[in-house]
Amino acid sequence: MKIATLFLVTLFLGKSCTNEAQNNIANAEIQYTANTRGFHLMINIANQKATISQGRGTENPAVEMAISDADWKELVTEFKKINLAAIPNLKDPTQKRLYDGAAIANLKIRYQGNNYESVAFDHGFPPAAIEKLVSKIVSLAKEKK
Which long-range contacts (C-beta less than 8 Å, at least 24 apart) are formed by 125-128? Predict the structure, then answer.
């Protein structure tokens, strides 16, 4: 009897831990920015909507768009793969932004009351651990054009 109870408790606790460990993008706010002196891109994602700002000033207002179910599914899949706690420690693969070879990019995620912010990296060359998520986010802005 004790063995059966122990087995059930272990199974229950193991199941609940794996469910909590998965990132749920529905509870997250994601912000991607890329900037240089003449270029500005900001993409905010929350609740299956993207707010995209391409440029500074009042002549370039932010545009809100609904994210299609197919794109949202891809974002969810990639978001679940990310270790949020590791984001601040990711290494940037290139240094082009140091000599104006690329815009300075940054990824910020607010999830369950915690903020996770990447180090600066080159726009178009994100760290490998977040590469697919960032590529999908940036593709949303390209679709808007």
Answer: 125/92, 125/93, 125/94, 125/96, 126/93, 127/90, 127/91, 127/92, 127/93, 128/93
The β-bridge partners of 63 are: 52
For residue 1, how many C-alpha atoms fall within 13 Å in the half-sphere facing its CB?
0
Q: Is 0.70 topped by the overall pTM?
A: yes
- Taking the C-alpha atoms of residue 109 and residue 91, their distance in angstroms, rounded to an integer, is 17
Rounded Cα gap, residues 142 and 34, in angstroms: 14
**Residue 76 near residue 67 (C-beta atoms within 8 A):** no
Which residue in 17, 82, 74 sits closest to 50, CA to CA? 74
Q: pLDDT of 108-126, one tens digit each?
A: 999 999 999 999 999 999 9
